[in-house]
Amino acid sequence: ILKEQEMASLPVPSVQAMVAATGGADVSPRYLRPAEAVAGDGEAQIPVIDYQRLLLELELDRCGEESARLHRACLDWGFFQLINHSVPDDVVEGMKANIQQFFQLPAETKKLFAQERGQLEGYGQLFVVSEDQKLDWADMLYLYTQPPESRNTKFWPDQPVNFRSTLDRYSGAVKEIADSLLATMAENLGLKQEVIADRCVGGVQSVRMNYYPPCAQADKVIGFSPHSDADLLTLVLQVNHVQGLQIKRNGSWFPVRPVEGALIVNIGDIFEIFTNGRYRSIEHRAVVDPKEERLSSAAFHSPNIDATIGPLKELTADEDEAYKTVDHENFMRLFFATKLEGKSFLDRMKLK
């Protein structure tokens, strides 16, 4: 496992540097892939959930219309947009500005926070497990943010000057949202809140900030390879106006049109395993624009590192378990040491 994890940090060329040198017209074969059809814009959009209504129902200890809407979204889509959330406007705008400013820094400055061999954190790319695999048309900054004692601040940029303080505030705000969502989801599944909440005391949160440069051959490259997230819940912030998130639905790629001010939330593999397949993680990818850069930020929320990852006993008393049970640390090591390829990682977690 450790050898595979080290391979995940193989050095790869910086997409930004290559684009700056070539203008994006000449693309290395390592980035070129066959194009896939995308569903038309006439398709229905992913569900929209009102967070304040959800909180009110949670406080009143009753499952109302918004809770039911959330349950249907988790069962039918695995994705939803969360409006009227509780992240302060100044924190959201601060995150957007800091992410944009960081990726505009000179390459030499960004390299001060570069990933080290065998490490996941820092500036660079993830899921590079061989010298000949296809690469994503993106650069990213990946950081562990919760619990606070897990932070390795050597990888936290000190430019822009308020980057660290803003990320700290954003991290706490989205964790609070994730905890509230998980509480409602537990009740929707007929569980006591603490069944999931107890596993998330001291839970792991990481944040991945993504920069997708424009590419003249945008239809032949991928910003982020098709995959499902390994966590419980992911909360995505759209940093600029350029769209690019697509989800796999009914065998086709379906573009997500972000609602102004919303967070995009999706179910992860651990939640699918916990629920024994009731809530399913959804394959998704990021595409790039031929003329404009795209930026986003994803906050991943997982149980604490001592938790066991497997179907919850409270949900499998009268049914067979469909997934293996493993410790959380090895689950995550294996995920990051694996090439992103749809839901192939989760498929290996299924019992035959």
From TrEMBL:
GO MF annotation: an example: metal ion binding
One Pfam entry name: DIOX_N
Ranges where the Fe2OG dioxygenase domain occurs: 203-303
Alphabetically ordered keywords of this record: Iron, Metal-binding, Oxidoreductase
InterPro entries: DIOX_N, IPNS-like_FE2OG_OXY, IPNS-like_sf, Oxoglu/Fe-dep_dioxygenase_dom, Plant_2OG-oxidoreductases
Required cofactor(s): Fe cation
Family that this chain belongs to: Belongs to the iron/ascorbate-dependent oxidoreductase family.
PANTHER family: OXOGLUTARATE/IRON-DEPENDENT DIOXYGENASE (PTHR47991)
Protein name, as recorded: Fe2OG dioxygenase domain-containing protein
Source organism per UniProt: Aegilops tauschii subsp. strangulata
